[in-house]
Specification:
10 strands, two-stranded antiparallel sheet, Transcription Regulator spoIIAA, 7 helices, globular, Pdz3 Domain, single chain, 2 domains, 250 residues
């Protein structure tokens, strides 16, 4: 049986907050596809969210559970979108999920669907997913700032990329493509696109780490431009949980 998204509401000062955890149980479900996992758990360190395909039976069961949970728990879901648009998008995702998907592919579909609600408390949070399910993995933490549609180093461990250098690309991602991917997950309250862009910039490091499975000795290639306009290439390490803890506890 698939436990699906755990959808929790908590009332505080008349505001509602939700947290979505993607969690498949270890119990197998029969599938007609041979190249997909009939059970999947993000609690397992070996689970690969970018390459391991999940069987449609699991995807559709979780999708159905999430639809029901939102219908039961959300006090007023259709302020910014119609019930018709919501259901039409749901059916499109149902069709998409008739083929195996990776966890990350499925997450993008779910995030695009939830974004129709345009409220800041119903979302699929990469920050929460990353620290809940990949905290024991190697990672490459960083933060960027965005000014006039360009991206600049805000925080890299040990300032290996100097603060203020323009970031052009991180491995296979251009800065723009990583930002656009992060926009898929950025919460939006009504038509507040500026706030959504700001939050997407904050999420870029989290989304990048969700996109990758790093191991010991893996390196990351950063192309960046310094204040003199020179384009540089830096090769940086990924960090173990112990290394990250030691750094962030300074």
């Amino acid at each position: 049986m698939c436990r699906g998204f755990l959808f929790l509401w908590q009332k505080k000062s008349l505001l509602f907050y939700s947290f979505l955890f993607f969690l498949f149980s270890a119990n197998p479900i029969f599938s007609q596809f041979d190249n997909c996992a009939e059970s999947f758990s993000l609690k397992k360190k070996e689970s690969n969210i970018n390459e391991q395909k999940i069987c449609p039976d699991l995807l559709q069961k979780d999708l159905s559970e999430l639809y029901d949970k939102i219908d039961e728990a959300h006090p007023n879901p259709f302020v910014f979108c119609s019930k018709k648009a919501w259901d039409e998008k749901y059916q499109l995702i149902v069709e998409e999920c008739k083929k195996p998907k990776t966890f990350f592919e499925f997450s993008k579909l779910i995030a695009s669907w939830l974004s129709l609600l345009q409220d800041s408390h119903t979302s699929l949070d990469p920050d929460l997913m990353l620290w809940e399910f990949k905290k024991h993995h190697y990672m490459f933490p960083f933060m960027l700032s965005r000014i006039n549609k360009k991206f600049y180093a805000k925080h890299f461990i040990n300032e290996l990329i100097p603060h203020g250098n323009e970031i052009l690309s991180i491995n296979e991602f251009s800065a723009d493509s990583l930002f656009n991917l992060s926009l898929c997950f950025a919460i939006k309250e009504g038509e507040s696109y500026t706030a959504q862009q700001s939050y997407a910039t904050y999420l870029m490091g989290f989304v990048y780490n969700l996109c990758n499975n790093f191991h010991y000795n893996d390196t990351i290639v950063i192309k960046h431009q310094d204040i003199n306009g020179d384009t540089l290439t830096s090769i940086l390490p990924s960090y173990s949980p112990r290394e990250r803890k030691r750094y962030f506890n300074k």
